[in-house]
Design goal:
By secondary structure, the protein is an alpha+beta fold. 35% of the residues are buried.
Length: 441
């Protein structure tokens, strides 16, 4: 009998049930879309703000030391301290290794020589990774300066690191330097390499002209191993830029880890703050100092906080509106069914049984509408992601369809439906069945 009454209520009040279900559907659609975007928004914002460059930088800790004798600074002006390129693979072994999306080591040098046409070259050079595989025995990371500097514009081709063999390498010239020297792609620069005893001829073949809008426009960009040969500093790196997905900085992130208790230090260490990732970089690479670039990191954190706040506001508003709509629909439905309620009460049905009937109706409606809302919201998230974030035009429903969200969304739909219908059900149970039946006569 219970299930028959349940099915009859859906058949006889299809319009009321449809309106309540539609309200739940729209609310859960908005919530699903916001939650689906929220689970990936950190990565997407990180990609969007990658045009600002790296958010962590590492360099030799010795560069921070002041070396003075008798009050006179005797530290070499050029700086003779380096990190080891061979140590950079250890970045793939730190706790937050998978959050590191880009690594770009740098080695400044000086390119002195002449072209095949007799043009004298005396320019600053910088050794870089262009398309490098970084691995520590696990899954490799393809990275380099090109990935960390997406605003660079190249006319030609990037140097091929594999072509750096013997006494030959490829290079690109900054736009201003190329213009000043009158050089184009295809030019050949004869320079020399250094070692502890002798200098040897070295050939740089220009493969392209790069425009960066900064000091890079006046430099020679060459593979890191070529710069090491020219400078006579094998395995040396002067600076390492790191791009990492991080959690927005808060007061706890700014704590000094060594001053925390072991428990709090472990919590701090296991959160993807820029400071904690920088701390792990210092642990992994001997002789390294690492710190976050606050302009980039705080910009990313501020944008993420504001967008996340807006998303939670949209979710709350959608659920509140759905709750009010369900409450109004249920109030009308119960008003129309007063006679039925009075009859059930007069035949001996308990208040709990009647309440269970109405809650069962609401629950079934919420589960069905919540499931549809999950699918519609996932589709909406796909559409929004493809249009809000650059480079997301190929986003498919499968990339946003998160099965974990289904029970969350259905639970929220049930909570909203129950909360919205409870006031009306309580009023219905307080009615005097004899008064209702007399009124219907």
């Amino acid at each position: 009998m219970f299930f028959r009454l349940l099915m009859e209520s859906f058949r006889r009040q299809r319009r009321r049930k449809t309106l309540a279900g539609l309200a739940i559907l729209l609310g859960t659609t908005a919530v699903t879309a916001m939650l689906a975007l929220a689970t990936t928004i950190g990565d997407r914002i990180h990609k969007e703000l990658a045009v600002y460059g790296a958010n962590i930088v590492a360099y030799p800790v010795a560069d921070l030391l002041d070396v003075k004798v008798g009050g006179v600074d005797v530290k070499p002006a050029s700086g003779g301290s380096y990190l080891k390129e061979s140590d950079l693979k250890k970045l793939r072994g730190i706790f937050w290794a998978n959050n590191i999306t880009g690594v770009s080591p740098e080695l400044p040098t000086r390119v002195l020589g002449a072209t095949s046409t007799g043009t004298i070259v005396d320019a600053a050079g910088i050794g870089l990774w262009f398309d490098h595989e970084l691995s520590n025995g696990g899954s490799p990371l393809r990275t380099g300066a090109v990935a960390l500097h997406p605003w660079w514009k190249l006319d030609g081709a990037w140097p091929n690191e594999a072509s750096t063999t013997g006494d030959t390498a490829e290079a690109v010239l900054g736009k201003a330097l190329a213009s000043r020297l009158g050089l184009k792609a295809g030019a050949v620069i004869q320079t020399t390499t250094k070692d502890q005893t002798t200098s040897r001829p070295y050939v740089l073949r220009v493969t392209g002209i790069v425009s960066a809008g900064d000091a890079t426009d006046d430099q020679v960009l060459l593979p890191l191993n070529a710069a090491q040969k020219i400078a006579g500093t094998p395995d040396a790196v002067k600076r390492v830029e790191v791009s990492a997905r991080t959690k927005p900085e808060d007061a706890f992130a700014r704590k000094e880890p060594d001053s925390l208790s072991p428990t709090l230090r472990e919590v701090w260490y296991c959160r993807p703050y820029a400071n904690s990732i920088a701390y792990q970089i210092r642990e992994a690479i001997p002789g390294a100092a690492a710190e976050q670039l606050r302009r980039v990191e705080q910009s990313e954190g501020n944008v993420l906080k504001r967008i996340s706040g807006l998303m939670w506001l949209v979710c709350a508003a959608a659920l509140l509106a759905a709750g009010f709509a369900v409450s109004a629909a249920m109030a009308t439905a119960i008003l129309e069914r007063q006679g039925e309620i009075g009859l059930m009460r007069s035949l001996g049905a308990s208040k709990g049984t009647i309440a269970l009937l109405f809650y069962a109706e609401t629950g079934l409606l919420a589960i069905f509408a919540g499931g549809l809302g999950y699918l519609a919201g996932s589709g909406l998230a796909t559409w929004l992601g493809a249009r809000i974030f650059s480079g997301e035009g190929t986003t498919t429903l499968g990339t946003v369809l998160n099965p974990v969200l289904l029970p969350v969304v259905v639970t929220l739909a049930l909570a909203v439906a129950i909360a919205g219908s409870t006031p009306s059900i309580r009023r219905a149970l307080k009615m005097d069945p004899s008064a209702i039946l007399r009124a219907d006569v």
